[in-house]
Amino acid sequence: MHRLFAYASVVDQREISRAMNDIEGKITTNDEVAPGYYLLKVKLSRPMDPFVPGQFVMIRVPDRDVFLRRPFSIYDYHRPVLSLLYKVVGKGTEILSKTGKNEKVSVLCPLGKGFYLQKRQEYVILSGGIGIAGVHALIRRLGTRSSVFFGCAAKKELALIKEIDTLPVSVSTLDGSYGFHGTVVDLLSEHLTTLREKDIEIFACGPAAMLKALRRILEKDKTPCQVLLEERMACGLGLCFGCVTKTVDEAEPYKRVCKEGPVFDLWEVCL
Amino acid sequence: MHRLFAYASVVDQREISRAMNDIEGKITTNDEVAPGYYLLKVKLSRPMDPFVPGQFVMIRVPDRDVFLRRPFSIYDYHRPVLSLLYKVVGKGTEILSKTGKNEKVSVLCPLGKGFYLQKRQEYVILSGGIGIAGVHALIRRLGTRSSVFFGCAAKKELALIKEIDTLPVSVSTLDGSYGFHGTVVDLLSEHLTTLREKDIEIFACGPAAMLKALRRILEKDKTPCQVLLEERMACGLGLCFGCVTKTVDEAEPYKRVCKEGPVFDLWEVCL
Amino acid sequence: MGSLSIKLFGKTLRNPVMNASGTLGYGREIEPLWGVETLGAYVTKGLSLNPHHGNPTPRVWEEQRGLINSIGLQNVGVDRFFDQYFPLFQEKKTPIIVNFFGFTEEEYIACAEKIRPHRLIIALEMNLSCPNVKQGGISFGKDPDLVHDIVMAVKRVTKIPVIAKLTPEVKNLKEIAQGAYEAGVDGFTLLNTIPAMVVDVEKRTIPIRGGLSGPALKPVALKAVYEISTSFPVPVIGAGGIMDHTDALSFLLAGAKALQVGTATFIDPYTIPKIVKGLEEYLKRCRCPSIGAIVGAARG
Amino acid sequence: MGSLSIKLFGKTLRNPVMNASGTLGYGREIEPLWGVETLGAYVTKGLSLNPHHGNPTPRVWEEQRGLINSIGLQNVGVDRFFDQYFPLFQEKKTPIIVNFFGFTEEEYIACAEKIRPHRLIIALEMNLSCPNVKQGGISFGKDPDLVHDIVMAVKRVTKIPVIAKLTPEVKNLKEIAQGAYEAGVDGFTLLNTIPAMVVDVEKRTIPIRGGLSGPALKPVALKAVYEISTSFPVPVIGAGGIMDHTDALSFLLAGAKALQVGTATFIDPYTIPKIVKGLEEYLKRCRCPSIGAIVGAARG
Ligand SMILES: Cc1cc2nc3c(=O)[nH]c(=O)nc-3n(C[C@H](O)[C@H](O)[C@H](O)COP(=O)(O)OP(=O)(O)OC[C@H]3O[C@@H](n4cnc5c(N)ncnc54)[C@H](O)[C@@H]3O)c2cc1C
Ligand SMILES: Cc1cc2nc3c(=O)[nH]c(=O)nc-3n(C[C@H](O)[C@H](O)[C@H](O)COP(=O)(O)OP(=O)(O)OC[C@H]3O[C@@H](n4cnc5c(N)ncnc54)[C@H](O)[C@@H]3O)c2cc1C
Ligand SMILES: Cc1cc2nc3c(=O)[nH]c(=O)nc-3n(C[C@H](O)[C@H](O)[C@H](O)COP(=O)(O)O)c2cc1C
Ligand SMILES: Cc1cc2nc3c(=O)[nH]c(=O)nc-3n(C[C@H](O)[C@H](O)[C@H](O)COP(=O)(O)O)c2cc1C
Ligand code: FES
Ligand code: FES
Fold first, then answer.
1. Do A65 and B64 touch (CB under 8 A)?
2. How far apart are CA B56 and CA B72, in angstroms?
3. What's the D272 CA to ligand 2 centre distance in angstroms?
4. Contact B65 A65 (CB under 8 A)
5. pTM
6. DSSP assignment, residue D287?
7. At D7, which helix (H) or strand (E)?
8. CA angle (A56, A216, A247) in 5-degree steps
9. pLDDT of D69-122, one tens digit each?
10. Does residue A264 register a pLDDT over 70?
11. For chain C, what are the domain ranges?
12. What is the Å distance from ligand 5's center to A244 Cα?
């Protein structure tokens, strides 16, 4: 484990965040991999500092119509190419999806606190829809040490896990067009009894409804679980306090997703 | 004369302004013809209505950094290609100068009131610097019926009159690097006695200082003279009253350059 | 298909889209491009008892997503407007709202008195951003008592419904609106421009001081529309940075019954007809029976 | 080469560029990118007597060339700030301006009292945009008398120079400033954000109501700086939409002695060091001996 997660386990988080940089990059590909989902590859002009899966970047969409940067998880990184997987949901992602090859972008990276790995017998990775982008780097690093569950609306979104097709992935679709018919949390709960026999930890990323359902099925046992949260951000650097999520800390309930997160202990946040 | 100026002399001005349109166009060339001066050619998607020399267009620079359209004189028009000659003076023209071939632009045209031609024995056309853009179409239409005077800072700006080199042009340069050494008004005043022997009318376009000097030398005789004025514009259509110039009309001194102008009788404006 | 028509002050307008005062000249200037009958109502350029010459140039300046103007209320005066420019609206049966102003209470009153009721005049819009020369030049619209008194005085001399057009530069917009409401105002137009200024860094000068309009104003105007439309039972007309039919919908959803489009027309003179078309298509898409049904719908 | 250093309240600052309150966290968050010692002075996040949790999300929303925020003044309280975050500024010998607020006069006073003079604390910046809970929630900064009294009360309990940070949503900024001036204020910061709102047209909701900052605010802030700096003999610090060194120059030329940069940092976190560099180059280009020499130069 130590080798895989040198930064999260050895280096103190404050040191990690010291290593952020604003790096110029050039778009090399920006392809629609599934309907409404794009894989963006950016060739960075200088190497990004080591990152922890779950960390994210703030990217400046090269268009004056977009005022703020937008946060995206580090999907993959092979020096000097940074990959982001994104879904078109609004103006920024719409414009980004139309941005051509060779356009220049600025990428502030790597940001936030990624997944923290303790020694466990088994890891379970759960994601729904575009949530796969937040755990993809983790899946790649953990390889066969983890069980991967992925839920999506329909078969056509399976393209999102094409890059991890060397690993076994349990799939659910809402319309039953592939794999388990239902939500990914329903699917997980079917395996939970078996999984619980081991000392496991769950890593999850997906829509709020998925995280809430997950919480419900884990509530009784308070299974260790880390979740990657999303919030609207202005700075991504902890400067504005715009991106908070409520936690159980009564003294200071609102924590910054970009700074104290985006990965939080499920049992410390109020979903 | 009637044939050349069918619109100005036969059609009432209100009718002319009825013929304006917002036309999409594509940039075909945008070349630097002299240092800081560009000749822009736009292929219009439909023909522009007949225009009178001195009329102008409002062009939308295809960049979100530029909020308002910018006014430019109709330099030339050969269906379906509209030519504008412009000087880089600020943000809008700067960005325009960097706009590439094939970019789409909207052109509201033709606008304003052009030069009005009465029968005269001779016409005198005077322009300074980029003022040539405002009288170029007039020079082309009048051909040898006019005497053309052009003043500029230095020899390198002679490229601005290259397109009329089949006609005799009297040139002055401020630095004496070509032609008469001095201002174009000084040059004109040397010829004025001879010219005044005929029934002449002067058409002028250039910087405020030039027009003021011109006024001084014509003051005594009140020689007929039309001037093309420039003002910051928001709409170019007479909607905002932003582009006014002061006239001798006491009841309503401020007239709109875009509507009642841009061509005014020199003796009716207060320069 | 849903209907765009709305009822305003008892009159039926074909749609809720108007020009903002001072941004469509005297109306006829737009005729070469589209007819004034496209408008729900034409709002006149600000008129006064006597003609006004206005300010020297520069009168307009480009800002980031905004415009600063200092036209200085140039206009031909209320009499000449009716002699010279009103016939177009009669000919085209286009309702009008008469925007007017004064520099003293007497001027407001005298101007309002001159405007005789006419079936096409649906309201008088009082521009309250004008400096009150008798009170040290601070504008009428900044003081609830001044607003109360002037609205009351105008209501007394006219039978035509009266709209108060408010300035954003106030301590408490609701208090101002309350002043107008208690004086019997029939509606509000929100907002007028915000005072602003430009510095020319190269020349080290201040080329213009004037009012800021355009998209920069939109979120401020939306808040005003929301606040006033939830507080008073009279119609609110929204204005400030409306550039397209989505912006127009924002204002309607926030509580505006009708809209005014200003600066956008300078950039694309077809903005108004495009917004009318966009709203029509929106009603169709949402299977909404009438535009009135969405007014205030975002307020929950 | 010209000098960027300025004198403010008797202290020398290395340059006139500060962050705007609430836009550079507690200071240490920017350290991975550049050191706080780059700043002329660090302006603290708004602090209060007791910690504040702030508002639920969404707290930030993008507008056209602007940002709307509704952070709700989340902060750790003045005590914890000095325990936990002040040491960084001591270590780096970076002057600070303490921005603070309260919801009652007593809170302002108690908070100011807690801040003991320190050679690095060059001023207290009173955020006067806060709602006064004892007076129906209207903010302190909107009433000249309230401003006068609260500034006076704070001046009475502290020896540190006091800056009044004003809100643009007032009837007459000069009158407000006059209230503060008569109470002995030592300077002004202009402006705070303008109240604004967003409508989500798709969802038909109002996702956020908050304060508008960024370029949209710039021409309004410039006017305020001009107006107040020409009317009162105390320093004015300009803020509102400063994105680059040209914007910074606009504010200096309009009369600001120093500057605060907020929203721009979110888009490019290097904006502040870039502005410092840009101003240095400007002085060189203009052969200007010191930045102080251009303050107010556009006012003629
Ligand atoms: C740490 C983090 C990592 C993320 N990783 C990814 C990723 O790898 N791939 C991906 O597609 N998306 C990711 N997101 C979400 C992504 O940032 C938003 O979808 C994007 O900013 C929307 O921008 P827009 O301009 O298209 O939408 P807008 O027009 O701004 O908003 C449209 C919709 O998007 C939602 N939205 C806006 N901003 C955010 C945000 N910051 N977080 C969540 N929802 C938002 C709004 O609620 C709204 O419904 C991540 C967000 C965070 C905070
Ligand atoms: C009827 C008319 C015809 C014109 N024809 C031509 C032409 O054929 N070729 C050409 O190069 N220019 C012409 N101009 C001037 C041209 O419109 C301006 O140079 C241009 O708008 C400047 O835009 P900008 O964004 O580059 O400058 P800005 O950044 O807006 O301003 C920079 C400088 O340009 C001046 N300026 C800005 N707008 C105008 C304006 N509307 N008129 C005059 N000066 C202005 C300002 O005073 C300032 O000094 C014409 C102007 C008018 C009104
Ligand atoms: C050039 C110009 C002239 C204006 N003249 C007037 C006027 O005479 N009376 C008035 O009440 N408002 C006037 N306004 C304000 C507008 O009617 C409108 O309230 C404001 O511009 C906001 O709308 P917009 O952002 O769509 O332009 C004027 C605005 C502009 C830009
Ligand atoms: C996220 C955010 C938080 C802010 N918090 C405060 C604050 O706590 N106290 C205060 O006086 N101003 C606060 N402001 C206002 C700024 O200090 C500044 O006055 C305003 O944003 C204008 O500057 P700008 O356009 O450069 O951002 C805040 C602004 C933003 C955007
Ligand atoms: S986005 Fe600014 S603090 Fe998180
Ligand atoms: S530019 Fe609007 S009236 Fe001339």
1. yes
2. 5
3. 33
4. no
5. 0.93
6. T
7. strand D6-8
8. 50
9. 999 999 999 999 999 999 999 999 999 999 999 999 999 999 999 999 999 999
10. yes
11. 6-54+71-192+220-295
12. 7
**Cβ of B256 below 6 Å from ligand 6:** yes
Contact C198, C205 (CB under 8 A): no
CB contact under 8 A, C300 and D143: no
If residue C199 lies in a helix (H) or strand (E), which one and from where to where?
strand C194-200
Q: Which residues of A touch D53 (CB under 8 A)?
A: 252-254
Mean of pLDDT values over A48-64: 93
Question: Could you state, in order of their start, the residue ranges of all structural domains in chain A?
Answer: 2-111, 122-268
Taking the CA of D264 as reference, the closest ligand is: 4
- Please identify, by atom number, the ligand 5 atom nearest to the C-alpha of residue D25: 3
Distance D21 CA to ligand 3 centre (A): 33
Closest ligand to residue D128's CA: 4
* pLDDT per position as a tens digit, A138-166: 999 998 889 999 999 999 999 999 888 78
**Residue B98 in 3-state DSSP?**
coil
Strand A37-44 relative to strand A21-34: parallel, antiparallel, unpaired?
Answer: antiparallel
Is A89 near ligand 1, meaning CB less than 6 Å away? yes
Number of Cβ within 10 Å of residue D266's Cβ equals 26
Q: Do residue B240 and residue C71 have CB atoms under 8 angstroms apart?
A: yes
What token pair was written down for B206?
């250039």
DSSP letters of D149-216?
HHHHHHHHH--S-EEEEPPS-SS-HHHHHHHHHHTT--EEEE--PEEEEEEETTTTEEEEEEEEESGG
Closest chain D CA to residue A255: D53
Q: What is the 3-state secondary structure (H, E, C) of D75-132?
A: ECCHHHHHHHHHHHHHHCCCCEEEEECCCCHHHHHHHHHHCCCCCCEEEEEEECCCEC
Residue D130 designated active-site: yes
- Give the CATH number of domain B2-111: 2.40.30.10
Contacts of C184 (CB under 8 A, 6+ apart): C151, C152, C155, C162
Distant-in-sequence, close-in-space partners of C187: CB < 8 Å, separation ≥ 6: C8, C9, C123, C161, C162, C163, C164, C234, C235, C236, C237
B262, B203 contact by CB (below 8 A): no
Q: Is the beta carbon of A179 within 6 A of some atom in ligand 1?
A: no
pLDDT value of position A8: 37
Please judge whether C29 and B259 are an interchain contact, meaning their C-beta atoms are less than 8 angstroms apart.
yes
What mean pLDDT do residues D225-238 have? Answer: 97
Q: How many CB atoms lie within 10 A of CB A192?
A: 17
CA D205, D208, D210, D216 dihedral sign is negative
Q: Which atom of ligand 6 is the closest one to the Cα of B232?
A: 1
CA-based nearest distance D91→chain C, Å: 37
Which CATH architecture does the domain made up of C6-54+71-192+220-295 adopt? Alpha-Beta Barrel (3.20)
Task: Let me know how long chain A is.
Answer: 271
**H or E segment to which residue A16 belongs:** helix A13-18
Query: What is this model's ipTM?
Result: 0.91
Catalytic choice (C111, C130, C286, C288): C130
Two structure tokens written together for D65: 């060339």
Distance of CA A173 to the CA centre of its chain: 20
Check the CA dihedral D164-D166-D171-D172 and report its sign.
positive
Q: Is B122-268 in CATH node 3.30.70.260?
A: no
Q: What percent of chain B has pLDDT over 90?
A: 80
Disruptive mutation site among D33, D62, D71 for chain A (greatest number of A CBs within 10 Å):
D62
Task: Give the rounded percent of residues in chain C with a pLDDT score beyond 70.
Answer: 99
* CB B254 less than 6 A from any atom of ligand 6: no
Q: What is the DSSP letter of D50?
A: S
pLDDT of residue A3: 36
pLDDT at B27 over 70: yes
Are the C-beta atoms of C220 and D212 separated by less than 8 Å? yes
Name the residue among B17, B231, B242 with its Cβ closest to that of C32: B17
